[in-house]
Specification:
The protein is an alpha+beta fold. A seven-stranded antiparallel sheet has the order 1-7-6-5-4-3-2.
């Protein structure tokens, strides 16, 4: 396995209707308002933007995100990522009783030089960093959904 290749999956159970969750996740330019680790999103056009993220560890990642699929009926949002990480990310939003399951899948290759250099000793910390970011994102989305 390539030491710079990562595959992540997070599943968020949310007490809100799927349409509301999907709508919030589809507006990536609003992420910095509710997701503390998403530091900036700059929209370039209808399908492309630049995102900067930083979690617990003292490094940020910046990448261009290009939407490749937006299917509200299926509850799917998918994008290609390029920059400090290259790969793809997908949200899949489905009904779960009275609430929603939002599943985040991501497969990326790290291209940022420092992170590549630290790939072996840093891998457990990088994975923990991602988990903490996703946990904070769920909490932030819960607050945002309650405020709507």
């Amino acid at each position: 396995m390539d030491r710079n290749h990562y595959r992540f999956r997070s599943v968020w159970s949310l007490p809100a209707p799927p349409a509301a969750v999907y709508a919030a996740l589809a507006r990536a330019e609003d992420y910095p308002r509710w997701w503390p680790q998403v530091r900036a999103v700059t929209r370039l056009d209808d399908d492309t933007g630049v995102i900067t993220i930083r979690s617990l560890l003292p490094y940020g990642l910046t990448c261009t995100v290009r939407r490749t699929l937006r299917d509200p009926a299926a509850g799917v949002l998918e994008a290609e990522l390029s920059g400090d990480i290259d790969g793809w990310a997908r949200w899949t939003v489905t009904a779960d009783g009275p609430g929603t399951l939002a599943r985040y899948d991501q497969e990326v290759e790290v291209t940022k030089a420092l992170l590549r250099l630290l790939a072996v000793p840093g891998r457990p910390l990088f994975r923990l960093n991602h988990r903490l970011m996703m946990r904070a994102g769920r909490r932030g989305l819960l607050r945002r959904l309650r405020a709507v």
